Amino acid sequence: MAAPLVHQVNVKATPDTIYKAVSTAQGLQGFWTSESKAEAKVGSIATFGFGGPTQRMRVDELVPGKHVKWTGLADFPNWDGTTVTWDISPADNGETSVVFRHADWPASVSQDDLGSINYNWGLIVERLKQFSETGKPNPLFAFATR
């Protein structure tokens, strides 16, 4: 199994604000992809669109203000069975720590692919920080809606 992809950032926002951003369609549309469909309900399927291709994630765990966990379904190559977690906790100076982890990659995934995916996750986590601190939507993947 390949090593997990991990990002940590401190955010000047409440744990509840960040939790809503990573667990609701409106929140996910604000920083990841404007084509996000999700509900904060264990067992539901979240769908993330990218101007054509989509990736589905099953919502496995929700702890308001603290934790979100998804499992990837068989849409993007190598994503089936991978897990995404968002761990939210208090940090110094009234900030909130967010630890993002995308794990359980198959051993067959190339280091080049993992590097590219990890780079994009870094950009997405930075957009989460901006969105949570300002409330202004600015998804990394923004697509025109009609």
Describe the 3D structure.
It is a single chain. The model has no long low-confidence stretch (mean pLDDT 96). It is built from three helices and seven strands. With 146 residues, it is α+β, with helices and mostly antiparallel strands. α1 packs across α2 (25-31) and α1 (15-23) crosses α3. The chain has one domain: Alpha-D-Glucose-1,6-Bisphosphate, Chain A, domain 4.
Please give the structural blueprint.
Elements: E1 5-11, H1 15-23, H2 25-31, E2 35-37, E3 45-49, E4 54-63, E5 67-72, E6 83-90, E7 96-103, H3 111-134
Antiparallel strand pairs: 1-7, 2-3, 3-4, 4-5, 5-6, 6-7
What is the structure about, briefly put?
By secondary structure, the chain is α+β, with helices and mostly antiparallel strands. 27% of the residues lie in helices and 32% in strands.
Which fold name fills CATH's third level, the topology? Alpha-D-Glucose-1,6-Bisphosphate, Chain A, domain 4
The CATH level-2 architecture is identified as 2-Layer Sandwich
Strand content: 25-35%
Rg calc? 14 Å
What is the N-to-C succession of helices and strands? EHHEEEEEEH
Helical content band: 25-40%
Q: Which class best fits the helix and strand makeup?
A: alpha+beta
Stretches with pLDDT under 50, minimum 5 residues: none
